[in-house]
Amino acid sequence: QVQLVESGGGLVHPGGSLRLSCAASGRGFGGYTMDWFRQPPGKEREFVARINWSSTSTNYTESVRGRFTISRDNARNTLYLLMNNLKPEDTAVYYCSANLGVYWGQGTQVIVSS
Fold this sequence. Notes:
There is one protein chain. By secondary structure, the chain is mainly beta. The chain has strands at residues 2-7, 10-12, 18-26, 34-39, 46-51, 58-60, 68-73, 78-83, 92-98, 103-104, 108-112. The strands form two sheets. Strands 2, 4, 5, 6, 9, 10 and 11 form a seven-stranded mixed beta sheet that branches. A four-stranded antiparallel beta sheet has the order 1-3-8-7, with no helix packed on it. A hairpin with a 4-residue loop joins strand 9 and strand 10 (103-104). The protein starts with a strand and ends with a strand.
């Protein structure tokens, strides 16, 4: 069992940056592929980024590639998402997920607005 808690969301101006964190408790974090998803207002949840257990492989949805960076610290049981050059269309609730969707956090709200 893994429990996930996201933090770091908030209100930011277009062009700004935020770093989201996902703290994991329980066993197994270090061996799991980890994902970030987001759900914009009134829309379906969508994939944002993925990182494998050893940080040797990452994947991004096209709309965030070059602006967002996923990373992890297995010693600290923490997943990160650094978001640069934020746009209004990045407004969403951001969720972290472990083990290909088996475990989910409660989400953290990101609002990009002037």
